[in-house]
Amino acid sequence: MENGIIFRVTKAITRAERKKAELRREIIDASFECFAQRGYHATGIADIATTLGIGHGTFYRYFENKRDIIDHVIDDLIAKIIGALATDNAPDAANTLDEYRAQVARIADALPRIFFDDPRIPRVLLFETTGVDADLTGRMLDLLDQAAALTAGYLRHGVECGYLRADLDIANTAKAVNGMMLASGIQGLRAESSVDCNALNQAITRMMFDGIRAENA
To answer: What is the DSSP string of 24-93?
Structure first.
């Protein structure tokens, strides 16, 4: 009998925790939507609460304030981007130029696609976060540095394996490649169709491997 009571109590706690986690997730999603549509500064806690049909008090049981919630929104968006770099796309996954070309094609499709399919993501990451405060701006600049270091890892591996040129300026090439991808993310805010996005991805990939010099030049 005692074990049955313990089981029922444990089960009830688990259900309550699950509902709590679900509401927390809903608050993050609603905040992301409000920040993307209204802008961070124009969004109030009331807007987020109204979107979900909850009271202010409920919001504050999960997050301290609006500044707290945007950190969680950013964590969520970064997790989506990192998810595009799965095992098959790890920096040391390619051992030949053909494998690297295929890897770049996968990344060129996965990463920009995140931005193109949901323009709210670049809008929040690139425009809203940098206007919040110095700490958040610093966090986004650190993220760019980390992205450059990650791209440099791909290039360094290619040089070590011999399928990329030995005299490659790894650090600056990494920044140049990331700059092209960042620009494509911004362009995605105005792209009118998926064809525009695909063409942009192909142009970036061709620039990386073939350059812009004519074959007979």
So the answer is: HHHHHHHHHHHHHHH-TTT--HHHHHHHHT--HHHHHTT-SSHHHHHHHHHHHHHHHHHHTS-GGGSTTS
**Contact, 24 vs 11, CB < 8 A?**
no
Q: Name the pLDDT band for 195 (thresholds 50, 70, 90).
A: low
Look up the pTM and report it. Answer: 0.77
Q: In this predicted model, which residue has the larger pLDDT, 11 or 211?
A: 211
How is residue 114 annotated by DSSP?
A: H
- The reported pLDDT for the residue numbered 13 is 62
For 131-158, letters b (16+ CB in 10 Å) and e give ebeeebeebeeeeeeebbeebbebbbbb
Q: What is the pLDDT of residue 77?
A: 83
For 64-88, what is each residue's pLDDT tens digit? Answer: 999 999 999 998 888 877 776 666 6
Q: Which residue has the tokens 């920040």?
A: 35
78-82, 114-118, 128-132: which has the minimum mean pLDDT? 114-118
**How buried is 43 (Cβ within 10 angstroms: 0-12 exposed, 13-18 middle, 19+ buried)?**
buried
User: 173 in helix, strand or coil?
Assistant: helix
Q: The tokens 């690297």 sit on which residue? A: 100
DSSP 1-20: -HHHHHHHHHHHHHHHHHHH
CA dihedral 202, 205, 206, 208 (to 10 degrees): 160
